[in-house]
Design a protein that fits this description.
The structure is a homodimer of 227-residue chains. Chain A contains eleven helices and no strands. Chain A is mainly α and 227 residues long. Chain A is flat. The structure holds a DNA duplex (30 and 30 nucleotides).
Amino acid sequence: MTRQEATRTQRIPLNRDRVLRAAVALADSTGIDALSMRRLAQELDVVPMALYKHVANKEELLDGMADAVVGEIDPPAAGPDWQRVVRGRILSARQVLLRHPWAVRVIESRTGPTPAVLAYLDSMAGTFRDGGLSADLTHHVMHAMGSRLLGFSQELFDTSGPSGPPDPGLAARHPNIAELAATAAHDGGSTVGGGCDDQFEFEFALDLLLDGFENLRRQGWTSARKA
Amino acid sequence: MTRQEATRTQRIPLNRDRVLRAAVALADSTGIDALSMRRLAQELDVVPMALYKHVANKEELLDGMADAVVGEIDPPAAGPDWQRVVRGRILSARQVLLRHPWAVRVIESRTGPTPAVLAYLDSMAGTFRDGGLSADLTHHVMHAMGSRLLGFSQELFDTSGPSGPPDPGLAARHPNIAELAATAAHDGGSTVGGGCDDQFEFEFALDLLLDGFENLRRQGWTSARKA
DNA sequence: TTGACGAGTGTACGCCGTACACCTACGATC
DNA sequence: GATCGTAGGTGTACGGCGTACACTCGTCAA
Protein backbone atom coordinates (compact mmCIF):
# COMPACT_ATOMS: atom_id res chain seq x y z
CA MET A 1 0.00 0.00 0.00
CA THR A 2 1.53 3.27 -1.04
CA ARG A 3 1.32 6.43 0.97
CA GLN A 4 -1.34 7.71 -1.43
CA GLU A 5 -3.58 4.72 -0.86
CA ALA A 6 -3.11 4.98 2.88
CA THR A 7 -4.32 8.54 2.64
CA ARG A 8 -7.49 7.44 0.99
CA THR A 9 -8.29 4.68 3.45
CA GLN A 10 -7.58 5.67 7.03
CA ARG A 11 -4.90 8.04 8.13
CA ILE A 12 -4.66 9.78 11.46
CA PRO A 13 -3.73 13.30 10.52
CA LEU A 14 -0.51 14.62 11.92
CA ASN A 15 -0.53 17.27 14.58
CA ARG A 16 2.05 18.92 16.76
CA ASP A 17 1.36 16.59 19.63
CA ARG A 18 1.77 13.42 17.60
CA VAL A 19 4.98 14.80 16.16
CA LEU A 20 6.38 15.58 19.60
CA ARG A 21 5.37 12.25 21.04
CA ALA A 22 6.93 10.39 18.15
CA ALA A 23 10.09 12.44 18.53
CA VAL A 24 10.35 11.64 22.23
CA ALA A 25 9.77 7.96 21.56
CA LEU A 26 12.36 7.94 18.80
CA ALA A 27 14.92 9.67 20.99
CA ASP A 28 14.18 7.22 23.78
CA SER A 29 14.74 4.23 21.59
CA THR A 30 17.53 5.30 19.25
CA GLY A 31 19.21 8.20 21.01
CA ILE A 32 19.14 11.89 20.32
CA ASP A 33 21.91 11.75 17.74
CA ALA A 34 19.83 9.50 15.55
CA LEU A 35 16.91 11.90 15.67
CA SER A 36 16.74 13.70 12.35
CA MET A 37 13.78 15.32 10.70
CA ARG A 38 14.01 12.75 7.94
CA ARG A 39 14.16 9.81 10.32
CA LEU A 40 11.27 11.17 12.36
CA ALA A 41 9.18 11.70 9.25
CA GLN A 42 9.87 8.14 8.21
CA GLU A 43 8.68 6.95 11.59
CA LEU A 44 5.42 8.84 11.07
CA ASP A 45 5.15 7.50 7.52
CA VAL A 46 5.25 10.93 6.06
CA VAL A 47 7.53 12.97 3.88
CA PRO A 48 10.12 15.05 5.81
CA MET A 49 8.68 18.40 4.82
CA ALA A 50 5.29 17.48 6.25
CA LEU A 51 6.74 17.97 9.73
CA TYR A 52 7.29 21.63 9.01
CA LYS A 53 3.55 22.22 8.98
CA HIS A 54 3.57 21.45 12.70
CA VAL A 55 6.92 22.68 13.98
CA ALA A 56 8.77 25.67 12.63
CA ASN A 57 12.13 23.93 12.52
CA LYS A 58 14.22 21.41 14.36
CA GLU A 59 15.04 23.76 17.22
CA GLU A 60 11.37 24.22 17.93
CA LEU A 61 10.92 20.48 17.80
CA LEU A 62 13.59 20.12 20.47
CA ASP A 63 11.92 22.85 22.51
CA GLY A 64 8.71 20.88 22.42
CA MET A 65 10.46 17.67 23.38
CA ALA A 66 12.08 19.38 26.37
CA ASP A 67 8.72 20.70 27.47
CA ALA A 68 7.13 17.30 27.09
CA VAL A 69 9.73 15.75 29.35
CA VAL A 70 9.60 18.49 31.98
CA GLY A 71 5.84 18.09 31.97
CA GLU A 72 6.31 14.54 33.26
CA ILE A 73 7.74 15.75 36.57
CA ASP A 74 5.40 15.24 39.52
CA PRO A 75 3.62 18.30 40.88
CA PRO A 76 4.87 19.39 44.29
CA ALA A 77 3.58 17.36 47.21
CA ALA A 78 1.79 19.16 49.99
CA GLY A 79 3.55 19.42 53.34
CA PRO A 80 4.92 21.79 55.92
CA ASP A 81 8.55 20.84 55.45
CA TRP A 82 9.89 22.73 52.45
CA GLN A 83 13.05 20.67 52.34
CA ARG A 84 11.06 17.48 51.94
CA VAL A 85 8.85 19.00 49.26
CA VAL A 86 11.80 20.26 47.25
CA ARG A 87 13.72 17.06 47.76
CA GLY A 88 10.84 14.87 46.64
CA ARG A 89 10.14 16.86 43.55
CA ILE A 90 13.74 17.01 42.48
CA LEU A 91 14.06 13.27 42.90
CA SER A 92 10.97 12.92 40.73
CA ALA A 93 12.62 15.09 38.12
CA ARG A 94 15.65 12.86 38.36
CA GLN A 95 13.54 9.78 37.67
CA VAL A 96 12.06 11.46 34.63
CA LEU A 97 15.48 12.28 33.27
CA LEU A 98 16.67 8.76 33.87
CA ARG A 99 13.81 7.64 31.63
CA HIS A 100 14.86 10.10 28.95
CA PRO A 101 18.64 10.32 29.15
CA TRP A 102 18.88 12.43 26.01
CA ALA A 103 16.76 15.15 27.64
CA VAL A 104 19.65 16.50 29.70
CA ARG A 105 21.53 17.55 26.61
CA VAL A 106 18.41 18.86 24.92
CA ILE A 107 17.37 20.97 27.88
CA GLU A 108 20.88 22.32 28.26
CA SER A 109 21.06 23.27 24.64
CA ARG A 110 17.92 25.43 24.67
CA THR A 111 18.94 29.06 24.46
CA GLY A 112 16.02 30.25 26.55
CA PRO A 113 13.73 28.70 29.12
CA THR A 114 10.80 26.91 27.53
CA PRO A 115 7.29 27.40 28.96
CA ALA A 116 7.23 24.17 30.95
CA VAL A 117 10.64 24.86 32.44
CA LEU A 118 9.53 28.33 33.37
CA ALA A 119 6.41 26.98 35.05
CA TYR A 120 8.47 24.39 36.89
CA LEU A 121 10.92 26.99 38.14
CA ASP A 122 8.12 29.27 39.21
CA SER A 123 6.50 26.49 41.16
CA MET A 124 9.80 25.58 42.74
CA ALA A 125 10.48 29.17 43.71
CA GLY A 126 7.06 29.23 45.31
CA THR A 127 7.97 26.24 47.45
CA PHE A 128 11.08 27.99 48.72
CA ARG A 129 9.16 31.18 49.46
CA ASP A 130 6.40 29.28 51.25
CA GLY A 131 9.11 27.59 53.28
CA GLY A 132 10.11 30.92 54.67
CA LEU A 133 13.11 31.78 52.52
CA SER A 134 13.31 35.42 51.58
CA ALA A 135 12.99 36.38 47.94
CA ASP A 136 16.64 37.34 48.05
CA LEU A 137 17.77 34.03 49.45
CA THR A 138 15.43 32.09 47.17
CA HIS A 139 17.00 33.75 44.20
CA HIS A 140 20.52 32.75 45.11
CA VAL A 141 19.40 29.32 46.19
CA MET A 142 17.88 28.64 42.81
CA HIS A 143 21.07 29.73 41.12
CA ALA A 144 23.08 27.54 43.45
CA MET A 145 20.96 24.56 42.55
CA GLY A 146 21.34 25.20 38.86
CA SER A 147 20.48 22.19 36.80
CA ARG A 148 20.14 20.11 39.94
CA LEU A 149 16.68 21.59 40.24
CA LEU A 150 15.76 19.56 37.19
CA GLY A 151 17.34 16.44 38.55
CA PHE A 152 20.64 16.25 36.79
CA SER A 153 23.93 16.68 38.47
CA GLN A 154 26.10 17.48 35.50
CA GLU A 155 28.79 14.95 35.99
CA LEU A 156 32.00 15.68 34.20
CA PHE A 157 31.70 12.75 31.88
CA ASP A 158 29.30 10.06 30.98
CA THR A 159 29.88 7.10 33.26
CA SER A 160 27.46 4.87 31.40
CA GLY A 161 28.37 3.38 28.08
CA PRO A 162 31.09 0.83 27.46
CA SER A 163 34.32 1.74 29.17
CA GLY A 164 37.36 0.38 27.46
CA PRO A 165 39.93 -1.83 29.12
CA PRO A 166 41.24 -0.27 32.33
CA ASP A 167 44.39 1.70 31.64
CA PRO A 168 47.22 0.02 33.62
CA GLY A 169 49.26 3.23 33.74
CA LEU A 170 46.42 5.30 35.08
CA ALA A 171 47.01 4.50 38.72
CA ALA A 172 50.66 5.52 38.41
CA ARG A 173 49.90 8.76 36.63
CA HIS A 174 46.90 9.68 38.76
CA PRO A 175 47.38 8.23 42.22
CA ASN A 176 44.66 10.29 43.84
CA ILE A 177 42.02 9.26 41.36
CA ALA A 178 43.14 5.69 41.71
CA GLU A 179 42.69 5.93 45.44
CA LEU A 180 39.19 7.33 45.07
CA ALA A 181 38.29 4.65 42.60
CA ALA A 182 39.51 2.04 45.05
CA THR A 183 37.31 3.36 47.86
CA ALA A 184 34.36 3.46 45.48
CA ALA A 185 34.82 -0.06 44.21
CA HIS A 186 32.34 -1.42 46.70
CA ASP A 187 30.64 -3.56 44.12
CA GLY A 188 33.31 -4.37 41.64
CA GLY A 189 33.46 -1.29 39.44
CA SER A 190 36.99 -0.74 38.27
CA THR A 191 36.94 2.34 36.07
CA VAL A 192 37.19 5.88 37.33
CA GLY A 193 33.50 6.63 37.28
CA GLY A 194 32.35 3.06 37.54
CA GLY A 195 31.17 1.48 40.72
CA CYS A 196 29.67 4.69 42.03
CA ASP A 197 26.16 4.77 43.35
CA ASP A 198 24.86 7.69 41.31
CA GLN A 199 21.73 7.99 43.34
CA PHE A 200 23.77 8.24 46.54
CA GLU A 201 26.04 10.88 45.05
CA PHE A 202 23.08 12.88 43.83
CA GLU A 203 21.32 12.83 47.19
CA PHE A 204 24.55 13.56 49.05
CA ALA A 205 25.04 16.82 47.19
CA LEU A 206 21.34 17.64 47.23
CA ASP A 207 21.05 17.24 50.98
CA LEU A 208 24.25 19.14 51.59
CA LEU A 209 22.84 22.07 49.65
CA LEU A 210 19.38 21.89 51.19
CA ASP A 211 20.86 21.82 54.68
CA GLY A 212 23.07 24.74 53.82
CA PHE A 213 20.06 26.69 52.61
CA GLU A 214 18.10 25.90 55.75
CA ASN A 215 20.99 27.14 57.87
CA LEU A 216 21.11 30.40 55.99
CA ARG A 217 17.36 30.79 56.37
CA ARG A 218 17.58 30.27 60.12
CA GLN A 219 20.31 32.85 60.35
CA GLY A 220 18.21 35.32 58.42
CA TRP A 221 20.91 35.43 55.76
CA THR A 222 20.77 38.31 53.38
CA SER A 223 23.07 39.21 50.52
CA ALA A 224 25.24 42.12 51.43
CA ARG A 225 25.98 43.12 47.90
CA LYS A 226 23.43 45.90 47.47
CA ALA A 227 25.35 48.66 45.66
CA MET B 1 49.58 32.85 -4.95
CA THR B 2 48.03 29.45 -5.23
CA ARG B 3 48.35 26.75 -2.62
CA GLN B 4 50.85 24.95 -4.85
CA GLU B 5 53.14 27.94 -5.10
CA ALA B 6 52.93 28.56 -1.39
CA THR B 7 54.10 25.02 -0.89
CA ARG B 8 57.16 25.66 -2.95
CA THR B 9 58.12 28.89 -1.26
CA GLN B 10 57.65 28.77 2.49
CA ARG B 11 54.98 26.83 4.21
CA ILE B 12 54.84 25.98 7.88
CA PRO B 13 53.83 22.35 7.83
CA LEU B 14 50.65 21.46 9.64
CA ASN B 15 50.84 19.53 12.85
CA ARG B 16 48.40 18.51 15.51
CA ASP B 17 49.24 21.48 17.66
CA ARG B 18 48.71 24.04 14.94
CA VAL B 19 45.42 22.40 14.05
CA LEU B 20 44.21 22.51 17.65
CA ARG B 21 45.29 26.07 18.16
CA ALA B 22 43.55 27.17 15.00
CA ALA B 23 40.41 25.30 16.04
CA VAL B 24 40.36 27.00 19.44
CA ALA B 25 40.89 30.38 17.85
CA LEU B 26 38.15 29.76 15.33
CA ALA B 27 35.72 28.63 18.01
CA ASP B 28 36.60 31.68 20.08
CA SER B 29 35.91 34.04 17.25
CA THR B 30 32.99 32.46 15.41
CA GLY B 31 31.43 30.10 17.91
CA ILE B 32 31.48 26.36 18.15
CA ASP B 33 28.56 25.87 15.77
CA ALA B 34 30.51 27.50 12.98
CA LEU B 35 33.45 25.18 13.52
CA SER B 36 33.45 22.63 10.74
CA MET B 37 36.32 20.63 9.37
CA ARG B 38 35.92 22.45 6.10
CA ARG B 39 35.92 25.88 7.68
CA LEU B 40 38.92 25.02 9.82
CA ALA B 41 40.83 23.73 6.83
CA GLN B 42 40.08 26.93 4.99
CA GLU B 43 41.46 28.92 7.92
CA LEU B 44 44.68 26.92 7.68
CA ASP B 45 44.76 27.35 3.92
CA VAL B 46 44.58 23.66 3.37
CA VAL B 47 42.18 21.17 1.88
CA PRO B 48 39.72 19.64 4.39
CA MET B 49 41.10 16.14 4.18
CA ALA B 50 44.56 17.36 5.15
CA LEU B 51 43.30 17.75 8.72
CA TYR B 52 42.72 14.03 8.94
CA LYS B 53 46.47 13.41 8.85
CA HIS B 54 46.65 15.08 12.27
CA VAL B 55 43.38 14.23 13.99
CA ALA B 56 41.46 11.02 13.51
CA ASN B 57 38.09 12.71 13.17
CA LYS B 58 36.10 15.62 14.44
CA GLU B 59 35.47 14.05 17.83
CA GLU B 60 39.18 13.74 18.43
CA LEU B 61 39.59 17.34 17.35
CA LEU B 62 37.07 18.35 20.01
CA ASP B 63 38.88 16.20 22.56
CA GLY B 64 42.07 18.05 21.79
CA MET B 65 40.35 21.41 22.03
CA ALA B 66 38.93 20.51 25.43
CA ASP B 67 42.35 19.47 26.64
CA ALA B 68 43.91 22.65 25.33
CA VAL B 69 41.41 24.73 27.30
CA VAL B 70 41.71 22.72 30.49
CA GLY B 71 45.46 23.08 30.18
CA GLU B 72 45.06 26.83 30.58
CA ILE B 73 43.84 26.50 34.16
CA ASP B 74 46.34 27.71 36.77
CA PRO B 75 48.20 25.06 38.73
CA PRO B 76 47.17 24.86 42.38
CA ALA B 77 48.61 27.53 44.60
CA ALA B 78 50.58 26.47 47.65
CA GLY B 79 49.02 27.06 51.03
CA PRO B 80 47.83 25.43 54.21
CA ASP B 81 44.14 26.24 53.73
CA TRP B 82 42.65 23.67 51.37
CA GLN B 83 39.48 25.67 50.93
CA ARG B 84 41.43 28.64 49.65
CA VAL B 85 43.48 26.49 47.31
CA VAL B 86 40.42 24.80 45.83
CA ARG B 87 38.51 28.04 45.64
CA GLY B 88 41.30 29.86 43.87
CA ARG B 89 41.85 27.16 41.34
CA ILE B 90 38.19 26.80 40.54
CA LEU B 91 37.87 30.53 40.05
CA SER B 92 40.83 30.30 37.70
CA ALA B 93 39.03 27.57 35.79
CA ARG B 94 36.02 29.81 35.63
CA GLN B 95 38.06 32.60 34.10
CA VAL B 96 39.38 30.21 31.48
CA LEU B 97 35.89 29.11 30.56
CA LEU B 98 34.71 32.68 30.34
CA ARG B 99 37.44 33.20 27.76
CA HIS B 100 36.24 30.15 25.81
CA PRO B 101 32.47 30.03 26.28
CA TRP B 102 32.08 27.20 23.78
CA ALA B 103 34.28 24.96 25.90
CA VAL B 104 31.53 24.18 28.38
CA ARG B 105 29.48 22.41 25.76
CA VAL B 106 32.51 20.71 24.26
CA ILE B 107 33.73 19.38 27.59
CA GLU B 108 30.25 18.21 28.48
CA SER B 109 29.87 16.38 25.22
CA ARG B 110 33.04 14.30 25.62
CA THR B 111 32.03 10.72 26.36
CA GLY B 112 35.05 10.06 28.52
CA PRO B 113 37.50 12.16 30.47
CA THR B 114 40.32 13.48 28.34
CA PRO B 115 43.91 13.32 29.65
CA ALA B 116 44.08 16.95 30.78
CA VAL B 117 40.75 16.67 32.57
CA LEU B 118 41.93 13.52 34.26
CA ALA B 119 45.13 15.23 35.37
CA TYR B 120 43.18 18.20 36.64
CA LEU B 121 40.82 16.02 38.62
CA ASP B 122 43.68 14.05 40.06
CA SER B 123 45.41 17.19 41.18
CA MET B 124 42.19 18.52 42.68
CA ALA B 125 41.60 15.27 44.53
CA GLY B 126 45.11 15.58 45.90
CA THR B 127 44.31 19.01 47.27
CA PHE B 128 41.29 17.66 49.11
CA ARG B 129 43.29 14.75 50.50
CA ASP B 130 46.12 16.99 51.61
CA GLY B 131 43.53 19.15 53.31
CA GLY B 132 42.63 16.28 55.54
CA LEU B 133 39.53 14.94 53.84
CA SER B 134 39.29 11.18 53.85
CA ALA B 135 39.39 9.34 50.53
CA ASP B 136 35.76 8.47 51.10
CA LEU B 137 34.69 12.04 51.70
CA THR B 138 36.88 13.33 48.88
CA HIS B 139 35.14 10.99 46.50
CA HIS B 140 31.67 12.23 47.35
CA VAL B 141 32.83 15.81 47.48
CA MET B 142 34.15 15.62 43.95
CA HIS B 143 30.88 14.18 42.76
CA ALA B 144 28.99 16.90 44.60
CA MET B 145 31.04 19.55 42.88
CA GLY B 146 30.45 18.02 39.48
CA SER B 147 31.17 20.44 36.69
CA ARG B 148 31.69 23.21 39.20
CA LEU B 149 35.16 21.80 39.65
CA LEU B 150 35.89 23.02 36.17
CA GLY B 151 34.37 26.39 36.81
CA PHE B 152 30.97 26.17 35.24
CA SER B 153 27.78 26.23 37.17
CA GLN B 154 25.46 24.72 34.61
CA GLU B 155 22.75 27.30 34.62
CA LEU B 156 19.46 26.16 33.26
CA PHE B 157 19.60 28.43 30.28
CA ASP B 158 21.93 30.81 28.62
CA THR B 159 21.44 34.26 30.09
CA SER B 160 23.74 35.93 27.62
CA GLY B 161 22.65 36.55 24.07
CA PRO B 162 19.84 38.85 23.01
CA SER B 163 16.74 38.40 25.09
CA GLY B 164 13.58 39.33 23.28
CA PRO B 165 11.12 41.92 24.51
CA PRO B 166 10.01 41.22 28.06
CA ASP B 167 6.83 39.18 28.08
CA PRO B 168 4.14 41.31 29.74
CA GLY B 169 2.12 38.26 30.77
CA LEU B 170 5.06 36.55 32.40
CA ALA B 171 4.67 38.22 35.76
CA ALA B 172 1.04 37.20 35.93
CA ARG B 173 1.70 33.61 34.96
CA HIS B 174 4.81 33.21 37.06
CA PRO B 175 4.53 35.47 40.08
CA ASN B 176 7.35 33.85 42.00
CA ILE B 177 9.81 34.21 39.20
CA ALA B 178 8.70 37.78 38.72
CA GLU B 179 9.37 38.45 42.37
CA LEU B 180 12.86 36.98 42.18
CA ALA B 181 13.59 38.97 39.05
CA ALA B 182 12.49 42.10 40.86
CA THR B 183 14.85 41.51 43.77
CA ALA B 184 17.66 40.79 41.34
CA ALA B 185 17.13 43.88 39.25
CA HIS B 186 19.73 45.81 41.17
CA ASP B 187 21.29 47.22 38.07
CA GLY B 188 18.49 47.42 35.59
CA GLY B 189 18.20 43.87 34.27
CA SER B 190 14.62 43.08 33.44
CA THR B 191 14.53 39.55 32.11
CA VAL B 192 14.39 36.45 34.24
CA GLY B 193 18.08 35.69 34.17
CA GLY B 194 19.23 39.19 33.45
CA GLY B 195 20.55 41.53 36.06
CA CYS B 196 22.15 38.73 38.03
CA ASP B 197 25.73 38.96 39.08
CA ASP B 198 26.93 35.63 37.75
CA GLN B 199 30.18 35.80 39.62
CA PHE B 200 28.34 36.36 42.89
CA GLU B 201 26.01 33.45 42.23
CA PHE B 202 28.90 31.19 41.37
CA GLU B 203 30.86 32.04 44.50
CA PHE B 204 27.76 31.82 46.67
CA ALA B 205 27.18 28.21 45.70
CA LEU B 206 30.87 27.39 45.72
CA ASP B 207 31.39 28.70 49.24
CA LEU B 208 28.25 27.02 50.49
CA LEU B 209 29.56 23.72 49.24
CA LEU B 210 33.11 24.23 50.49
CA ASP B 211 31.84 25.17 53.94
CA GLY B 212 29.60 22.13 53.96
CA PHE B 213 32.55 19.93 53.08
CA GLU B 214 34.68 21.45 55.80
CA ASN B 215 31.94 20.82 58.35
CA LEU B 216 31.74 17.19 57.32
CA ARG B 217 35.50 16.89 57.57
CA ARG B 218 35.51 18.32 61.09
CA GLN B 219 32.82 15.90 62.10
CA GLY B 220 34.82 13.02 60.72
CA TRP B 221 31.96 12.25 58.36
CA THR B 222 31.98 8.86 56.72
CA SER B 223 29.54 7.34 54.30
CA ALA B 224 27.37 4.75 56.01
CA ARG B 225 26.46 2.94 52.85
CA LYS B 226 28.93 0.09 53.00
CA ALA B 227 26.89 -2.98 52.05
C1' DT C 1 -19.99 26.08 -8.26
C1' DT C 2 -16.22 28.07 -6.72
C1' DG C 3 -12.47 29.33 -4.45
C1' DA C 4 -9.69 29.74 -0.31
C1' DC C 5 -7.08 27.03 2.69
C1' DG C 6 -4.65 23.62 5.37
C1' DA C 7 -2.05 19.40 5.02
C1' DG C 8 1.03 16.53 2.67
C1' DT C 9 4.39 16.06 -1.51
C1' DG C 10 8.57 16.45 -4.52
C1' DT C 11 12.50 18.56 -5.89
C1' DA C 12 16.48 20.91 -5.06
C1' DC C 13 20.31 23.45 -2.67
C1' DG C 14 24.10 24.01 0.14
C1' DC C 15 26.08 22.40 3.98
C1' DC C 16 28.33 18.57 6.70
C1' DG C 17 31.90 14.51 7.95
C1' DT C 18 34.88 11.55 5.84
C1' DA C 19 36.34 7.12 2.76
C1' DC C 20 39.50 6.32 -0.75
C1' DA C 21 42.75 6.81 -4.29
C1' DC C 22 46.19 9.71 -5.72
C1' DC C 23 50.31 12.67 -5.98
C1' DT C 24 54.54 14.53 -4.44
C1' DA C 25 58.56 15.87 -1.85
C1' DC C 26 62.02 14.06 1.17
C1' DG C 27 65.21 11.21 3.81
C1' DA C 28 67.34 6.78 4.30
C1' DT C 29 69.60 2.93 2.10
C1' DC C 30 72.42 0.62 -1.17
C1' DG D 1 73.26 9.07 -7.59
C1' DA D 2 69.32 5.72 -8.19
C1' DT D 3 65.66 3.62 -5.52
C1' DC D 4 62.05 3.40 -2.53
C1' DG D 5 59.19 3.83 1.63
C1' DT D 6 56.69 7.15 3.92
C1' DA D 7 54.41 11.28 5.70
C1' DG D 8 51.68 14.99 4.40
C1' DG D 9 48.66 17.36 1.22
C1' DT D 10 45.05 16.84 -2.78
C1' DG D 11 40.73 15.77 -5.38
C1' DT D 12 36.73 13.42 -5.96
C1' DA D 13 32.80 11.41 -4.34
C1' DC D 14 29.11 9.62 -1.25
C1' DG D 15 25.49 9.68 1.87
C1' DG D 16 23.24 12.39 5.24
C1' DC D 17 21.52 16.63 7.06
C1' DG D 18 18.06 20.90 7.55
C1' DT D 19 14.95 23.27 4.95
C1' DA D 20 13.28 26.80 0.99
C1' DC D 21 9.93 26.74 -2.42
C1' DA D 22 6.54 25.46 -5.57
C1' DC D 23 3.11 22.00 -6.16
C1' DT D 24 -1.17 19.09 -5.45
C1' DC D 25 -5.26 17.69 -3.49
C1' DG D 26 -9.20 17.07 -0.36
C1' DT D 27 -12.39 19.75 2.54
C1' DC D 28 -15.57 23.05 3.50
C1' DA D 29 -17.75 27.83 3.52
C1' DA D 30 -19.99 31.11 0.69
